[in-house]
Design a protein that fits this description.
Layout lengths: L2 H27 L3 E2 L6 E2 L5 H7 L2 H34 L3 H14 L4 H12 L4 H8 L13 H26 L2 H9 L4 H12 L1 H16 L3 H6 L7 H10 L4 H37 L1
Protein name: ABC transporter permease
Keywords: Cell membrane, Membrane, Transmembrane, Transmembrane helix, Transport
Pfam families: BPD_transp_1 (PF00528)
Length: about 290
């Protein structure tokens, strides 16, 4: 590798060093002990905090629930987001495409806290959603849409959708519409063209968008805190409680390290699927 290429790799190497350096610091702090009566910590180094988490049914249940919830949300993001991305990419009217893209981009101007409070207003017992459903006669009494899993799921789905849609949109636009038209001219139905041509050719982007959606979902903090009402707890909320309620920094660091390790393993699985999908697309095109 030439010297110039090595220089270009320095920013990425520095970023990775900071990331893994922080991970090592967390892992090391997790092997310390909480000083009794204080928020500090002291030696010696032990694996007590890690063993304590593995012997805690509540913590393990929250970690497992976080993974299941995040994967379910990722699946819902794919199901809801891909048709939307396809609509934007294949619409014949430029003004419709620009309008929908503008709506997506506007969502990035709102922070997670403001979004969470917005959904509290929309999904409340006297919120816009319940009022609209009662006005149309679809329900007789307000639905419980907040302070439960439903409210957190809806708000997080709204949060992850723009990231997924914008990721997949470019891939769909890159598929020549003439390919789809040729398949239809040869007798293939629109549904068959969609599932046997468009979806396979954009599979790497789908996996990439799903990876991004999963990363956002598994690290969510504000949405379960505000919309869950204490009834929906993800692992980030569990770690927060160890820090600011129990004041047990070493245990929080140990849980954070284990959580990060689990997340990295799952993300590695996503990346492996993406590499496989990319090779499959190239083989199909060749």
């Amino acid at each position: 590798m030439k010297a110039g290429a090595r220089v270009l790799l320095l920013p990425a190497a520095a970023l990775m060093a900071i990331f893994f350096g922080a991970f090592l610091v967390f892992a090391a702090v997790g092997m310390l002990s909480c000083a009794p009566g204080t928020p500090g910590y002291s030696a010696p180094l032990t694996l007590g905090n890690y063993l304590r988490f593995f012997s805690d049914p509540a913590g393990l249940r929250i970690l497992g629930w976080t993974v299941v919830f995040s994967l379910s949300l990722t699946a819902a993001t794919i199901v809801a987001g891909y048709p939307f991305a396809y609509l934007i990419a294949r619409t014949r009217w430029a003004w419709v495409r620009n309008l929908l893209l503008g709506v997506l981009l506007v969502t990035f101007l709102c922070g997670s806290i403001s979004r969470a409070y917005g959904w509290l207003i929309l999904l409340g017992r006297r919120g816009l959603v319940n009022e609209a459903l009662m006005w149309t006669g679809l329900i007789d009494h307000p639905l419980a849409l907040i302070y439960n899993v439903s409210g957190v799921f809806i708000a997080l789905l709204h949060f992850t959708l723009p990231y997924f849609v914008l990721t997949v949109f470019g891939a769909i636009r890159a598929v020549p519409s003439q390919v789809e038209e040729s398949a239809r001219d040869l007798g293939a139905s629109a549904l068959r063209v969609f599932f046997q041509i468009t979806v396979p050719l954009t599979l790497p982007a789908i996996v990439g968008g799903a990876t991004l959606a999963f990363s956002l979902a598994i690290s969510a903090f504000a949405f379960p805190l505000l919309l869950g009402g204490g009834r929906v707890r993800l692992i980030s909320n569990y770690i927060y409680d160890q820090l600011f309620v129990a004041f047990d920094l070493p245990f929080a660091a140990a849980v954070s390290s284990l959580f990060l390790l689990v997340a990295l393993v799952i993300l590695w699985g996503f990346f492996a699927v993406e590499r496989w999908a990319t090779r499959a697309v190239y083989r199909r095109a060749g």
